[in-house]
């Protein structure tokens, strides 16, 4: 880890731990004060000058601490706006994709969307929100654009894929946090005279969950490297699909390890698992990314797929 990333994650770790459980109106002023929104904006444009690996590390911590804020969406929006030469508004920014509900829409200063190769930034007063909630209880609002965008620019960015990367990074942290709670519980809970962790069935289930958690972290980091290289279509599809599949396994395992206590709202596990279940379908569900990845593999063919995988592996190791 570079020195700059270490400093960045140290700051994020402390701040997000303090803001865990806080509402957006309390958390956002401190997030803004930390300058996280400009993480991916070049230094010569007044930003931090970070890379996509930095973003993965920060959002992983946000997921690990159940940060209730559209931080990843705002960072991606600032990057796209900076690339287009558009000044970003103050406050959180939502990402709107294909009519899907947007995270924290009602609380955002603006909504960013890309339609027909055109980036459009709509201020909040040009949007009509229909309030809704995710399974986690966080706002997920339908948005209708009733006014003109404040800015437009051509863009070839894949907003769905970039949003998927945000959810992969957050999920990596939330999966690790849920897994850590399960480990803590089975080591402390005694049944039939010995800790639950000593039972073979428990060990087997946790080993499977650990494999999935590790795979999401690796897939997310690989996608970050590919984004920095400017060619990430394959890695982003693979990372989101792998994350969705991991959620399907890890969430039930962590709840089973806790027994009845794992299903109570008073216990902290639900802060992670409820978010994970919602994130699984946001910015592309299992079937969407399976189709995207499947089409790429089919076009490459057997020999082509092997060449593609080895070439991309070499780039990851470079």
UniProtKB/TrEMBL annotation:
Keywords: FAD, Flavoprotein, Oxidoreductase. Its cofactor is FAD. Residues 160-288 form the Acyl-CoA dehydrogenase/oxidase C-terminal domain. The keyword Oxidoreductase applies. The keyword Transcription regulation does not apply. PANTHER family: ACYL-COA DEHYDROGENASE (PTHR43884), ACYL-COA DEHYDROGENASE FADE28 (PTHR43884:SF20). Belongs to the acyl-CoA dehydrogenase family. This is Acyl-CoA dehydrogenase family protein. It comes from Novosphingobium tardum. The lineage of its organism: Bacteria, Pseudomonadati, Pseudomonadota, Alphaproteobacteria, Sphingomonadales.
């Amino acid at each position: 880890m570079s020195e700059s990333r270490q400093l960045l994650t140290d700051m994020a770790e402390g701040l997000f731990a303090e803001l865990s459980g806080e509402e957006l109106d309390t958390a956002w002023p401190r997030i803004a004060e930390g300058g996280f929104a400009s993480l991916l904006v070049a230094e010569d444009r007044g930003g931090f000058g970070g890379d996509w690996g930095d973003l993965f590390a920060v959002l992983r911590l946000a997921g690990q601490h159940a940060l209730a804020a559209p931080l990843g969406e705002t960072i991606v929006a600032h990057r796209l706006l900076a690339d287009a030469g558009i000044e970003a508004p103050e406050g959180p920014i939502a990402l709107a994709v294909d009519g899907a509900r947007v995270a924290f829409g009602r609380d955002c200063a603006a909504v960013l969307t890309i339609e027909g190769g055109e980036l459009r930034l709509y201020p909040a007063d040009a949007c009509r929100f229909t309030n809704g909630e995710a399974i986690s209880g966080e706002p997920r609002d339908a948005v209708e654009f009733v006014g003109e965008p404040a800015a437009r620019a051509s863009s070839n960015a894949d907003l769905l894929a970039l949003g998927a990367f945000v959810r992969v990074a957050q999920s990596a942290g939330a999966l690790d946090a849920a897994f850590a709670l399960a480990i803590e519980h089975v080591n402390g809970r005694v049944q039939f005279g010995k800790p639950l962790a000593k039972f073979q069935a428990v060990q087997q289930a946790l080993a499977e969950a650990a494999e999935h958690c590790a795979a999401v972290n690796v897939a997310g980091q690989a996608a970050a490297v590919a984004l920095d290289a400017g060619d990430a279509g394959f890695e982003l599809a693979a990372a989101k699909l792998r994350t969705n599949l991991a959620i399907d396994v890890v969430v039930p395992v962590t709840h089973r390890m806790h027994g009845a206590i794992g299903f109570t709202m008073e216990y902290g596990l639900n802060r992670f698992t409820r978010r994970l279940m919602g994130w699984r379908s946001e910015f592309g569900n299992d079937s969407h990314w399976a189709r995207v990845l499947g089409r790429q593999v089919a076009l490459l063919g057997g020999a082509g797929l092997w060449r593609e995988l080895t070439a991309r592996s070499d780039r990851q190791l470079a």
